Amino acid sequence: MQRYFIDPNAIEPGRITVRGDDVHHIKNVLRMTVGDHILCCDGQGKDYYTELVSITDKEILCRILSTFPSKGEPRVRVTVASSLPKGDKLEWVLQKATELGADSFLPFMSSRSVVRLDGKKSAKKRVRWQRIVKEAAEQSHRGYVPQVGNVLTWKGLLEKFPSYDQVLFAYEREGSSLVEVLQKTRSQRLLVVVGPEGGFTESEVEEAVAQGAVPVQLGPRILRAETAPLALLSCILFSFGEMGGEPL
Amino acid sequence: MQRYFIDPNAIEPGRITVRGDDVHHIKNVLRMTVGDHILCCDGQGKDYYTELVSITDKEILCRILSTFPSKGEPRVRVTVASSLPKGDKLEWVLQKATELGADSFLPFMSSRSVVRLDGKKSAKKRVRWQRIVKEAAEQSHRGYVPQVGNVLTWKGLLEKFPSYDQVLFAYEREGSSLVEVLQKTRSQRLLVVVGPEGGFTESEVEEAVAQGAVPVQLGPRILRAETAPLALLSCILFSFGEMGGEPL
């Protein structure tokens, strides 16, 4: 069933008023009519099963039929820090990682990042990225919309490390095995850092380690910059029992 | 370093002759010259570190400097059967799954597959898919090129099940947890089956189970048809110690 994130202020006892872009989507794209059902999520952990009661160009009134907790949130919170890859690859990292269960995103530029964004371009991109994440969160039945942060410099990213219980960074040249690291950790707030196509420089690796990050190897195959964060995230969530079943 | 799969017949004592499309890539795309180095892989588990000795439009002669076993092959062999998804999504499933370590691919059409290919179109597509897989295998340092099978009907796919030690299929509505299934299995030849955007029909699920397949759930979040095979593959390889480290 189609699912929308709704401004919590639009929720009143027994009813929800849908406004904004979602009205167009429900009315004109999906061509729904009075009596059809949609799921509304308040983005704070609650889902509402509703019936459309009235439809205008500006708003859609929904009657709440039942309420239940959103089921889509992992207990472990993984933030994905991805160096800006070429083309639109970050867009699909955002989409796929949201489906898988990422908590939030920190795009960054390091020495070897090919893509460079200035403040203006970066703000525009961020609006687009946030929309992609919202749509993926709706589609995958997430309980809230992961936030995409401002594009950080490498130094800016390093400064974020102390906010996390553990920081892992993908490094093909050396590092602990992922299995080993995950067997030792039961951290609840993880940051995973994945470099650009050309990898990290040696001094970046040193700086990350000095800031407490743990380098991890993902096995003998060389993963692309856009594949590594998804593989890492899948394995971490699997290890925490979030891909079906109990923690390992 | 750039790496190419080479016809084993092109390998002679001490030297390798590169022919075909790779000549154009080495000469005109990368603009390499005599004295530059490339890695050649025989696609049968052996890598050759070589130096370019002579370059013409038709062939490039390489001197073998050293030989070593390809390191990129997982011990567990996972075949990915993916129902034809919309657009070019299968192309990136093929690319990413090859990087991660898939053994081979079986595209198929089931009741709810939106994309339909007749024999002619399917043969043309297969050439393209195989090229994508070859390039991904070269880039990710695989020891051989995974093979993409002919597009199968659902019935055709069911007939393949007995060739595998275990068949898992992603089913969001019910099934064992992936952790549970993987803890019990040490099968060496696995087939993972992922349905189209609209999922499997109930009768397809029954037919798959009757043929010995095990339905698995990938957790509470709804993964897209193109995300599920990559998540499944990552978790399986992780569980077998193929994403860095020992088996769980």
UniProtKB/TrEMBL annotation, chains A, B:
It is found in: Cytoplasm. It catalyses: uridine(1498) in 16S rRNA + S-adenosyl-L-methionine = N(3)-methyluridine(1498) in 16S rRNA + S-adenosyl-L-homocysteine + H(+). It comes from the Bacteria. One of its GO terms (cellular component) is cytoplasm. GO terms for biological process: rRNA base methylation. It is an enzyme of class 2 (transferase). One of its GO terms (molecular function) is rRNA (uridine-N3-)-methyltransferase activity. Keywords: Cytoplasm, Methyltransferase, rRNA processing, S-adenosyl-L-methionine, Transferase. Residues 19-65 form the Ribosomal RNA small subunit methyltransferase E PUA-like domain. Residues 75-236 form the Ribosomal RNA small subunit methyltransferase E methyltransferase domain. InterPro entries: Alpha/beta_knot_MTases (IPR029028), PUA-like_sf (IPR015947), RsmE (IPR006700), RsmE_MTase_dom (IPR046886), RsmE_PUA-like (IPR046887), tRNA_m1G_MTases_N (IPR029026). Its main location: cytoplasm. Its EC number is 2.1.1.193. Pfam families: Methyltrans_RNA, PUA_4. Belongs to the RNA methyltransferase RsmE family. Specifically methylates the N3 position of the uracil ring of uridine 1498 (m3U1498) in 16S rRNA. Acts on the fully assembled 30S ribosomal subunit. PANTHER family: 16S RRNA (URACIL(1498)-N(3))-METHYLTRANSFERASE, RIBOSOMAL RNA SMALL SUBUNIT METHYLTRANSFERASE E. This is Ribosomal RNA small subunit methyltransferase E. It comes from Melghirimyces algeriensis. The lineage of its organism: Bacteria, Bacillati, Bacillota, Bacilli, Bacillales.
